[in-house]
Request: fold
Amino acid sequence: MRATRSYIMESKTAINRTSSEKLFEVAKTYFPGGVNSPVRAFKSVEGAPIFMKKGDGCHIWDEDDNQYIDFCCSWGPLILGHNHPSVYNGVMNAMKNGASFGTPTVLENELADLILSRNPFIDKIRFVSSGTEAVMSALRLARGYTGRKKVLKFEGCYHGHVDSMLVKAGSGLVTFGTSSSAGVPEEYANETIVLPLNDIDALRECFEKQGSEIACAIIEPIPANNGLLLQEKSFLKELRKICSEFGSLLFFDEVISGFRVGFNGASELLEVAPDIITYGKIIGGGLPVGAYGAKKEIMAQISPDGPVYQAGTLSGNPVAMAAGIAQLTECAKPGFYEDQEKRTKTFVESINAHASKNEYDFEMITIGSIFWLSFAGKKRIQKADQIDPNMDLFKYLFAELLDRGVYLGPSGYEVGFISQAHTTTYLEIAAKAFCDSLDAIYK
Ligand SMILES: *Cc1c(COP(=O)(O)O)cnc(C)c1O
Reply:
């Protein structure tokens, strides 16, 4: 059943969000669009963004004391939920010793050891302060190591706001990119090649034409920034093969998937070994941390060992490292990811069963503890252009869920995240809110 596109967004007068509305008016005088990151602005769902003041477990509270079950989880980092006691204690203990030194600290060694002792794909790692910074640095490394200029990316993958990654496909199958943001010179965009996801023929054609110029192919092995575009394993395996054939590096951007679909991310889950990996989000336990890693010979190119320059005043910050150590220590415990996936599956399946029984044109797509709401009625969406660009239905569902105390990231292109704090009981409450909200928009 198609939902009626004439659903009316009534003002839900029963719920008071006046504090958020007032704060947003003030914020607009300080920040472009009233925010410090664009998707927070509620542009695609209407209304003022909700100002949160507190989180605990799977719940968050806004400035008007409304309570929500949170599936945004700070856009992924909070895999243990809000205010987890280990993370809290780790941060407070580190803070007592001082916020930053600009010297090496033992905490950097500890977080590196937690990761490298378990990770078969990388020998060395470098900590930075965001996912964007990790991608930017690792792209420089790929170019420095190979001595090549061009970078291949895939349409529908997000890699942070790095100049050369803010690029969309030009016309034609094998093409140079064109910049998708003002302020990015076409000359930069021209060094980026953009291909559709999950298309082995396009991949072959591209490498046969210009493989010898490609420093690396960067991909989200589980693309989760533009819907959830689950790729065929065979596509990623072919990508691995072609990169090796042409001497290009395979670059997995695991900023979302790393420590999310398994401790060693999508590389381990999908059994494809990349040459370079970036991490972010979960790695910092809710504080700003990113990282990139590779085998020894590639990492040897990084300064001060090698000629590829990269530095950071607050890189490896002890408070942030402590948060990362606390969080990843929990993630590394036996059964952690199996349990995450099991709860997520039960949640998703109960909502999908309701949608299917009522013939709603709606389906939740999931992997690990990630889910995405697809209104297209197609189970397998693998390419960016298969997503229905009309996000009205998401907007309606978002509003209905808010009024039932469920918070999602405010965009239909974004995925939802389930944390350890989303217990079966809370997931049952949330599932009921989903089913009732679907009834409200489809009936
Ligand atoms: C979030 C994200 C980034 C950017 O990370 P920031 O910390 O927001 O700079 C890069 N790549 C992927 C795959 C991401 O999900």
Remarks:
- The pocket of pyridoxal-5'-phosphate is lined by residues 130-132, 135, 158-160, 220, 225, 253, 255-256, 280-281, 290 (CB under 6 Å).
- The chain has two domains: 18-70+335-442, 85-331.
- The mean pLDDT is 94.
